[in-house]
């Protein structure tokens, strides 16, 4: 097994058969020892956090598979905290695609002059560039095309997949009385050229609320897997 990438919350290995193995770590992002899913630095280590994130990821990727939505998922081993996936190439050095159902977080910080906190949004899609040094800046469809990161056609594919997958996650959460406020995804291209969902879908990738109260990632994982 060859280590190909050491991430903040996962390590990526290449398997003999060419697939990748994502090893989920107990390191979580945050600042000054305080858990913050949106942060770009590893803040602390929580025993069992990796396995919890993988359990939720496995649940969502298996629902997506049933619905024939294309992802990199092959299988998952909870005991070992690993997930086998198809290797993908990302756009540029990686993009994040966000789907928003409520005005919170960075959307509210940017547009607070025109929108009230918690206002409903209709699966609003935004793209950000993975660039820790520049705090993952948002980027427009035109800028993505101009910089050669995504063609207009690819943007449409990503946007449609994002709204479709966001809808699936929202529906799964709703079954447990949980509201999805926003969620972020990563996409890549697999062998043959198809654009698929990659990476993970865990508590750290979304904001979820129950009865108006924010639910921490580890708590979300418990509620969803009950
Ligand atoms: N199928 C795949 N093929 C290739 N790379 C993948 C695949 N799935 C996930 N990745 C990449 O593996 C890495 C996983 O590491 P990790 O989640 O720790 O991310 P990171 O980029 O360090 O930090 P952050 O999650 O804050 O962006 C990410 O860079 C992700 O884009
Ligand atoms: Mg990541």
From TrEMBL:
* Enzyme Commission no: 6.3.2.6
Q: Any idea where the SAICAR synthetase/ADE2 N-terminal domain is?
A: 4-214
Keywords from UniProt, A to Z, are: ATP-binding, Ligase, Nucleotide-binding, Purine biosynthesis
What's its catalytic activity? 5-amino-1-(5-phospho-D-ribosyl)imidazole-4-carboxylate + L-aspartate + ATP = (2S)-2-[5-amino-1-(5-phospho-beta-D-ribosyl)imidazole-4-carboxamido]succinate + ADP + phosphate + 2 H(+)
Tell me where on the tree of life, at the top rank, the source sits. Answer: Bacteria
What's its top-level EC category? ligase
The molecule here is called: phosphoribosylaminoimidazolesuccinocarboxamide synthase
